[in-house]
Amino acid sequence: SGTEAGKRFDLQLVEKTQEEVEEQQRRQQAFAEERERRAAERADSIRTVRETLRQEEVRRQEEVRQYVAAVETVQQPVADYGINDTEPSAAAQTELDEKAALLQRYPDKQLLIEGHTCDLGTPAVNMSIGLRRAEAAKAYLVEKGVAPERIRTVSKGETEPIVPNIGEENRRKNRRVKIVMNE
């Protein structure tokens, strides 16, 4: 009976030890599952952050592309002026309308409007005509919603032709205004 009690005690001890081992295994399993769950959450978070950063970079690149395209469009000369004309023609107004829409997207950019002429007339008269062209273009843009304090005007007169002043077609190209966007 002493041995019977010892056997029961040994059996109880083995069962208790086995239960403790099983409990330890359950805890280790739960810990491993929790570790895997957290690792999966971290991986998901990393993927989300990477995707967000990628989308932000794509958005920034698109903004830069649009800005560069806007600057290129704005800085294209507006020609189609007659010899002494200072007011923009209908065709020039259409170009200025497009530029005004683009300029309103970038309200923090300062603008310089240059007035140019061909070589017909005296340098002094051409400087005056160039300035009046620039001022007329400014007035038109202001009328279209561009803030006047953003705009400076200058005359280049006949000093910066884009093509040689040979023939009426070339002279017409030189009679122009140019808008420069500054940082």
Protein traits:
single chain, 183 residues, mainly alpha, three-stranded mixed β-sheet, 4 helices, 3 strands
Order of helices and strands: HHEHEHE
Largest β sheet strand count, sense and barrel closure: 3 strands, mixed
| Proportion in β-strands | 5-15%
Poorly predicted residue ranges: none
Rg over CA atoms, rounded to whole Å, is 39 Å
Number of helices: 4
CA distance, first residue to last residue: 101 Å
Oligomer: single chain
* Global morphology: rod-shaped
The proportion of residues forming helix, as a percent range, comes to 55-70%
Number of strands: 3
* Nearest-integer average pLDDT: 92
Tell me the strand order in the biggest sheet: 2-1-3
Structural class: mainly alpha
Please outline the helices and strands.
Layout lengths: L1 H73 L15 H16 L4 E7 L6 H21 L7 E7 L10 H7 L1 E7 L1
Parallel strand pairs: 1-2
Antiparallel strand pairs: 1-3
